[in-house]
Design brief:
mainly beta; 7-stranded antiparallel β-sheet
Amino acid sequence: MRVFPTMLMLTIAASAQSTTEFEGRPALLLDNGKLELTVFPQGGAFVRLLIKEDSRRINPIWDPLRDARETGKSQFGQSVGHFVCVDGFGPVSEEERAAGLPGHGEAHTLPWSTRLFERRGKSLTLTQTVHLPALHESLERTVRMDEGESVVRVHSRLENLLAFDRPVNWAEHGTIGSPFLEPGVTVVDMPARRASTRPYLESWRVKHRLRGGMEFTWPQAPAVDGGTVDVRVTPAQLGTGDHTTSLLDPDREWVWVTALNPKQQLVFGYLFRRADFPWVQTWEHFPEDGRLARGLEFSTQPYDVPRREAISTGAMFGAPTFRWLPARSSIEATYFMFYAAAPPGMHRVDEVRWERGELVIEQKEERRQVRLAAARGLE
């Protein structure tokens, strides 16, 4: 029997499981023994995240392709899973549309090239790039998963190919969906203070729980009936849709947003630098058929609005509504995505932090914690 070097064996193992299908589309599979992450080469979206030990195979990431397939209806929205909105977060102007620029930027509409997909030692790495021809920008993203960890490290670099400074609109369009997102059960938490409901348009033909265009202190938002609504909680009564934005705690270098399902005892979320993404936008799609979706979109701007509006606004609550990308230079952003079992009785998240090689997710009441191995820490 021939004995292969360990490195060669690991490389073969990685390549053997690198390609798969998801909802009938080609996909890449990252498996570190603890989590499985499925990524679309087309558009670069994260479309499925599974805990290997979870026999229920509950995916917290919204899957509109499944909803459309199972209901026979057209797909809600044009994109899937967690996708990248760059450069652009929201609708385009008439002139941009005529020039061929899609909403939410180009990155989510184009094929991404795989530059590196390898397992080296205990680390699995996927590096993808996409050239944005209309915007004259280039995006490189590296996803790293270490063996046996429930934390995914994502590092992105956006390069300006033009000879002048430019304002950038960038959002990580994370979205959770059913069955992880459950009526009256799933809660969303973040270290937010000032927040606002989006002004509602008559063209939005959906019932609202919240009053439009109102400032509030997270998480108690003004209700249409004159009271308040705890927007942490997914409503038990369905048939509504609302839209809020929250400014994350300016006293923190690292901020977070989590979604917790206490009944299924699962917690999912993101940790990222506030300087990169000061805002979390949450849009709610809570139809009566129970196929729910809720955005956890951390971004450079409060709402997904046209470029001119975001840049003309300049600032909201004293925080910027865009980010600068210098001439022929690049900017970077790092975030961590995590998914794990939660302990019985955990019903909220009050803190997410690094502590001696672990990512700690904590409910301060009764000190209920999830401690996830994360050896690399905040690199």
